[in-house]
């Protein structure tokens, strides 16, 4: 069964850093473009970053540009989050997309405090 599992979330202070990791199992991540979404309390889920199959193309939401970095290897997707802000609080989801198929992880909570 194809699955993605996020880890690395938790509590961080504003200005601090966290690194999220997303592990793939049951499918070959090499064939999938990958991304990260987040859902803040009371808000809709939003896409914040994506990365192509060959890692030669990245995109970031304006809200995280210059602070977050997405990367990948054969079996994992990473999101390095620096200079965290209170508004970065939310549940973070990783995704893998191949054609019309999108796989979602269960999410990991990130809470940024002042």
Structure description:
With 114 residues, the protein is mainly beta. The chain is built from no helices and 11 strands. Strands 2, 4, 5, 6, 9, 10 and 11 form a 7-stranded mixed beta sheet that branches. Strands 1-3-8-7 form a 4-stranded antiparallel beta sheet, with no helix packed on it. 29% of the residues are buried.
Overall 3D form:
globular
Amino- and carboxy-terminal Cα gap: 40 Å
Give the percentage of residues in beta strands: over 45%
Helical content, roughly? Answer: under 10%
> By helix and strand content, what is the structural category?
mainly beta
What's the helix-strand series?
EEEEEEEEEEE
Q: Radius of gyration, Cα only, in angstroms?
A: 13 Å
Which blocks of ≥5 consecutive residues have pLDDT under 50?
none
* Overall mean pLDDT: 95
Q: How many E-type strands?
A: 11
